[in-house]
Specification:
This protein is about 45% helix and about 15% strand. It has about 300 residues and is of the alpha/beta class. It has two domains: about 200 residues, Aldolase class I (TIM Barrel); about 60 residues, no CATH class. Helix 3 runs parallel beside helix 4 and helix 8 crosses helix 14. The structure holds ligand TUI.
């Protein structure tokens, strides 16, 4: 399938893998790129040397294009931005903020820039700043989210900008892909489905929670602090939501979740850790390789889009 996005990035299928913190490392990213999508390494809160090594390992495993995601709330965001420029990483995606200050250096280095946006206003600002495409991410996504759903956000962003739009949030199969195309998207980004991929290094307990999840099993914590985060419901989210209702302080809330994602991803502590996942988890029922996932999704989508 050829779209503005496959042309822009030189990839076979217009499927990006989300830059999931602690999850999206060289093994997952290279598997997605080798399968014809765009694999992405998450820089998350990691420092320069760690991400540099991840880039080296990814390059060892694939000669296809790949990306690095910079989480702009990271204390290392600025040095990771420089690393991406130095390494001439093919694609950079950003999340949780505006990458304005770094856009120029990336463009000059020939890095393709694709910011994640959760509003039309930021999408327009990114286009003005020279972004090559934007990822319009709805609040069905896992992790740090905006307010608007994918269904409402994507067509509004498509109407507001002239660059390719990638839909994210709530997409997990060929039907979601086809729906995104109907909304005007040139491709999709998926995170939750790739969580259970064979090449994904997340702890088996985490994968099992996603595989067992039902439609209503995610919750959003942190709406009161300005950092809403979607995860699968567990003991910690229950306590968190009680604390929020009781008006406990920001510090008390933070103390509940600090290090929670690492605990869930690496230690497999899915009762107390932060099991970030999108609402589409209820649809994710089988483990597969990244190649099987991508080929299945594209086949389903192509059948639907032909009728
Ligand atoms: O960034 C994400 N998702 C994430 S980042 C993350 S790491 C984390 N861990 C613990 C607590 C908090 C974060 C986990 N999940 N998605 C991309 C995304 N960006 N979603 C929403 C946005 C966004 C929101 C507001 C982008 C820009 C924005 O406004 C920026 C501005 O300055 O206008």
């Amino acid at each position: 399938m050829k779209t503005a996005l496959t042309e822009l990035l030189g990839i076979r299928y217009p499927i990006l893998q989300g830059g999931m913190a602690w999850v999206a490392e060289h093994s997952l990213a290279s598997a997605v790129s080798n399968a014809g999508g765009l694999g992405i390494i998450a820089a998350a809160n990691a420092p320069y040397d760690y991400v540099k090594e991840e880039i080296r390992r990814t390059r060892e495993l694939t000669d296809r294009p790949f990306g690095v995601n910079i989480m702009l709330l990271s204390p290392y965001a600025e040095e990771i931005a420089r690393l991406v420029t130095e390494e001439k990483v093919p694609v950079v995606t950003t999340g949780a903020g505006s990458p304005g200050p770094y856009m120029r250096q990336w463009k000059e280095a020939g890095v393709k820039v694709i910011p994640v946006v959760a509003s039309v206003a930021l999408a327009k600002m990114m286009q003005r700043g020279g972004a090559d495409a934007v990822i319009a991410e709805g609040c069905e996504s896992g992790g740090h989210i905006g307010e608007t759903t994918t269904m409402a956000l994507v067509p509004q962003v498509v109407d507001a900008v002239g660059i390719p739009v990638i839909a994210a949030g709530g997409i997990g199969d060929g039907r979601g892909f086809a729906a995104a195309v109907m909304l005007g998207a040139s491709g999709v980004q998926m995170g939750t489905r790739f969580l259970v991929a064979d090449e994904c290094v997340v702890h088996q307990n985490y994968k099992d929670r996603v595989l067992r999840a039902k439609d209503i099993d995610t919750v959003v914590t942190g709406r009161s602090t300005g950092h809403p985060v979607r995860t699968l419901r567990n003991r910690t989210t229950r306590t968190y939501l009680e604390y929020e209702k009781a008006g406990k302080s920001f510090e008390e809330l933070e103390a509940l979740t600090i290090g929670g994602l690492r605990k869930a991803v690496q230690d497999g502590d899915v009762d107390y850790g932060s099991v970030m996942s999108g609402q589409i988890a209820g649809l994710v029922k089988k483990r597969q390789s990244c190649r099987e996932m991508i080929e299945e999704i594209m086949q389903e989508a192509e059948t639907l889009l032909k009728v």
